[in-house]
Write a structure and sequence with these properties.
505 residues; alpha/beta; 18 helices; globular
């Protein structure tokens, strides 16, 4: 071990990281016991202490999840780690001996079914070099983290996040961070998780600011979540209980969830719009772990002391329509069915046709899908927080990904490589091509600087959102501040109340 490798004492034992390009970097530190054996499907438990100094040079293994596609996860564990050691944190610090630097804690996305902190897209080095301590961590996804099961607490993935944030409160000062100045930021399911954390009693006091990038509008009732879990349990021939499923290998449960997704087309009459999406998992409003859907709770004044940035990309669901070979070729009947599922109110589909007269069936589907799943939930989150007395800042990312002649537009997930500077990582390379344009690099620097400024002071550099002006930071080439760009959709959804999705038949 190099003599200058950083060493820090946590509350449960000492860890030794690595010195990397001027940063102190620690990987794979446990924040909870492995959720295996008797602890599978249980509330996360505090980790066991250790003697001596633990090597913290390798990421912990990812939680069980699909291994195909962009979010494919490596299966190897770090040195001295068991395969079930999923619940670990990673820290990038400009100076582990510094006093009270701002802290930014990343919550990854992945449709609540995938994602892992060791993804190269989430390398915290570039952000940390601008004077903040960056933390990433793993949490349980899919059946392990979000299935509604008999004999198990709901929202285990969210409880993992609470445990990780508790670890930050207890330990981050030893890494140079300020536990009183913690900002959580996340994208997609990570943003939806943060929206849930804002209204959870267990998360109160664990962070000061929040950044939600593309909040999904999917929060499930216990009935809907239990019905989906039962369908997945049927795939492996057991009841949807923690006791029965604990006997099933996690990889088989991943396959069971994928089988449920494959059967979504048959289930729209029971599961509604959820059956037109790509995931059977979301936070469950169970009344205990998660007491309410975030929009109503925030509008009522919950978390009004937490400053919030909320926003979305312009062409959110272009990524999904293109990935499924639908873009430009969706059958008119299928597009009409999906449009009816996503559009607000009984006459919403016709309202979309009138509001966007030049749009063909595929474009109408994409617009309604984007609005229902990400754009309007994000806008309404900012509106609710402002209405409840909180300070909210709204943004839209309009810069089009340059690869493939801009065919993906400003699609879902585009903000991640911009903010982390991870243009060469798999997803970033897909969006930006072999040579990243200077405009993208500059835009990424602008977004990253705004996020860091917000984490440090609560001011990202543009006016707070108000119902009167709808002022929005528009991240494009060049960036600007303007009234909310998606005014047509805003008006279509003005009377809609996002809340809890339930069984429909």
């Amino acid at each position: 071990m190099p003599a200058d490798d950083p060493r820090v004492k946590t509350t449960i034992g000492a860890v030794r990281g690595r010195r990397e390009d001027g940063l102190a970097v620690f990987r794979g530190i446990p924040f909870a016991r492995p959720p295996a054996g008797d602890l599978r499907f249980a509330v996360p438990r505090p980790p066991e202490s250790w003697d001596g100094t633990r090597d913290a040079s390798a990421f912990g293994p990812p939680p069980p999840q699909p291994r195909a596609g962009r979010i494919a996860a490596p299966v190897s564990a770090g040195a001295g780690q068991a395969a079930g050691d999923w619940l670990t944190v990673n820290v990038w610090s400009p100076d582990a001996g510094a006093a009270r630097l701002p802290v930014m804690v990343w919550v990854y996305g992945g449709a609540y079914a995938a994602g892992y902190a060791s993804d190269p897209a989430y390398d915290g080095a570039r952000i940390a070099r601008q004077g903040v301590v960056v933390v990433t961590f793993n949490y349980r996804v899919g059946m392990e983290g979000f299935a509604q099961l008999e004999g198990a607490p709901a929202n285990r993935g969210l409880l993992d996040q609470v445990a990780a944030l508790g670890w930050v409160q207890d330990n981050i000062a030893s890494f140079g961070g300020d536990p009183d100045n913690v900002t959580v930021f996340g994208e997609s399911a990570g943003a939806g998780s943060i929206a849930a954390l804002l209204v959870m009693d267990a998360a109160a006091g664990l962070f000061r600011r929040a950044i939600t990038q593309s909040v999904p509008g999917t929060f499930f009732s216990t009935a809907l979540a239990a019905d989906i879990a039962a369908a997945a349990a049927t795939e492996v021939g057991v009841r949807p209980s923690a006791a029965d499923l604990a006997r099933i290998d996690p990889e088989r449960l991943v396959g069971a969830a994928e089988a449920v997704i494959a059967s979504f087309g048959e289930r729209a009459g029971r599961w509604g719009a959820v059956a037109h999406t790509l995931t059977p998992f979301s936070p469950v409003v169970d009344g205990e772990v998660l007491p309410a859907a975030p929009w109503q709770a925030l509008a009522g004044g919950r978390a009004r002391d937490i400053e919030l940035i909320a926003g979305h990309t312009r062409d959110e669901c272009r990524l999904f329509t293109a990935a499924s070979a639908r873009f430009g070729g969706l059958a008119a009947e299928e597009a009409a069915t999906a449009l009816r599922a996503f559009a607000p109110g009984l006459g919403g589909a016709d309202a979309y046709r009138v509001a966007y007269p030049e749009a063909d069936a595929t474009r109408l589907y994409e617009l309604a899908y984007s609005d229902w799943l990400f754009r309007m939930p994000s806008l309404h989150l900012a509106q609710a927080h402002a209405a409840g007395g909180g300070t909210a800042f709204l943004y839209e990312l309009r810069y089009a990904a340059p690869a493939n002649d801009g065919a993906l537009g400003a699609c879902h997930g585009l903000d991640v490589p911009l903010i982390f500077g991870s243009f060469a990582a798999g997803f970033g390379q897909m969006l930006f091509g072999g040579q990243t344009p200077a405009a993208a690099v500059n835009l990424g620097e602008a977004m990253r600087s705004s996020w860091i400024a917000f984490a440090a002071s609560g001011d990202p550099g543009w006016p707070a959102y108000t119902a009167a002006g709808h002022l929005t930071r528009v991240f494009d080439d060049p960036p600007s501040v303007a009234p909310y760009p998606e005014e047509t959709s805003r008006r279509l959804w003005a009377e809609h109340e996002f809340g809890i999705l339930d069984l429909v038949g």
